[in-house]
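Need tokens for this chain, all 96 residues.
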Amino acid sequence: MKATLVNHVKVRDERGNIVETRMWRVSSTLDKPHGYKYSLVYIVDGVRVIGYDNGESQGDHRHFGDKQQPYIFTTLKQLAGEFLADVETWKKDHPP
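Here are the structure tokens for all 96 residues:
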């Protein structure tokens, strides 16, 4: 199955930082058993400070600052909600 784009949004927030989400429907594989490939990033001053992705052979995982940890994928809606909640947490912890 060819990857089918489900969602792609790239905007600048009120601080001028980049919020970008990309999600594709793909064939289920060992590293993508749910059938989705995704990349969600929050970029501040040219640096990714938050990211959720499942790059080839890496499985589902989350980046927050300089830490990386496994992420348990359930749905695209929950993924997007948790990502946006992390963005808000980052903003609260790093005032302008």
